[in-house]
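Aim 2 progress. For Fungal-type protein kinase domain-containing protein, the working sequence is reproduced below.
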Amino acid sequence: MKCPGDVVESHWQGTAFTFHCKWSERDAMDNFYTIVARLIKIMARDPCRRFTLGATIEDSRMKLWIYNRSMIIASEAFDLESDIKLFIRVIVSLLFAEDSDLGWDRTIKAGYDGNIRTYDIEVCGIQYKTKSSNIITDVDEEDIYSSGTRMFKVFRADDIDQKEPLIIKDYWATYFLESEFTPRRNLLEAVSDTTDQKSFKEYITTPIAWERVKDRGQEDHTKDLILHGEEPDGTYIIDLPGYARYGYSGRHKYNIAAESVVGKLLNIGKWEKGYLHRWHYRIVLKKSVIPFDKLINLKDMLLVIEHSIEALLIMHKAGWIHQNLNPENLYLCIDPATGSKGGVIGGFELTKHIGTEEGDNEPLGDPKFMALEIANKAYTYKFTKQPGLTVNSSEHLLDLNKERLTTNAETKFWANYLHDLESIWWIIAWTSLNFEKIEDISAVPQYERVEDKVRDEIIDEIFPDDLHSRERSKFFHSESSFNTQMGMVPRPLLALECIMEKLRKILNDAYLEEEYSLEKNDQPIELLHERVPHEKILEILKLFPDEDVGVVSIDDNPERFARMEQRLQSLKSGSDERPQKRTRIVQDSEEKQEKVVSKPVITVRITRSKAAEMNKGRITRSMTKASAKRKISYKG
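Predicted structure tokens for this construct:
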């Protein structure tokens, strides 16, 4: 198919099978970086892809690769000279394979209207039309093993005048989760008050159709369909000529820490072990929405936060919790007829009734916005009371000598409503650190360039890969730590900083009140108070009704982008600057690729938190046999 659009984009959208070849086996690491980067980039750039295929060749040895939303798999290498029949079989299979066997999705048909790429998407037998400019949430290349959520603004094929905009959410849910349609229905049934139910419907997304995507009559699944029912059956250690040997053998624990040629670190949190197979879902939403992280006005952001708290209050009173609140599941809805705005919540796949066992064995949700207690699987303030001990505040309790406080081993941990509210707090914190006023986009003076580096370091400490980060915990629990960190943020959004400070105290005191007085060890914490934290939070938010300020993500700041490009080049030239954990620059894998030469050590720059992970690099063998690292995410 001729692709009249951007040449680079059409390259990624039209690649059926990617090769990368080197003359020597000593170039294995370079091949590894490049093939992984290409497989990931092709899937991230093309909404029509379910999985991607490729091959690497070093000298005469060839290895096949496949990447889907659950894993990256590599075959054992075979010799092209001694096993030429196998090579011919691979080539013939590729030549005669159907599109779906090469990774394309038959239910999405791509075309072009001039230079604009268009898509016809089928859901439950109904055709919807959209185009590339109407993709409102796209796949992040850093989320290697995730739901791969995309959201499209669409119109029914028969809506010629495009009067009723809808949303299609396309995603890969982990095998033990249902579509958000079912939990949402059960949640609405649990809200018994008629007034609350009416209000609640205004605060949540409205699905009108959903299905598991099918290919040739079979439901799309990362194992049952894409891998034909097979899965990795073991691991082997990567042994690179000329480099230190790293890795270990084992099953269901994939932990390769490697830097791809596009400057992304492929890493995995310590609690994320094994791999999760996924079902392919598609859901149609009635309300046309804008994701929270795409908003460009602080007033709109605060409105979404306020209405999200209103929705959570109704949900929590009914005894339910959300468990997956993040910027991609909060939206601004604009009525096309009146122009009125409102905040809505989506992403109900993990929603459940408080006290049910499902999901309490493993941390669920987006790690960046996960409550500290969920990550630690333990209450912060649930201690055995000591005679003569008086606790005045949450921070006072944490500052006490630990020898006087002993955790009650009999206490069973349950997820509760405070964890949802804490997730909202982390969303506000993330916004405060990752957005700045539009008026500050203008060229930043030389002396402030160092401050941008400070901002990055704060982000790395507060939103780390390690969920058990001490700095993250101190930022939430300690007033002095919070003030110190926020005091170093350049060009801060002062309204958000003030809101964070007040909400942090409200939440910590609420945790203390609920947990320190918790007498029963086998019962979850439920919302039973007359003066609930939600109302206190809403009072704080209403103190800032006029924050009509344009904001922009620091990722989208062109001046900062240019400075980051310069800094990346200095890192490559051997600068001693602290390497960044989060590279925000999308690089072209061809132009930015570093040729790996024979040296006694691997020249990959990694952060301190990644150094330990580097000793756990593995690939697994499977059907065409072997998986590389994965990064789990339950988002979307």
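DSSP finds 16 helices and 29 strands in the chain. This observation will guide construct design in the next reporting period.
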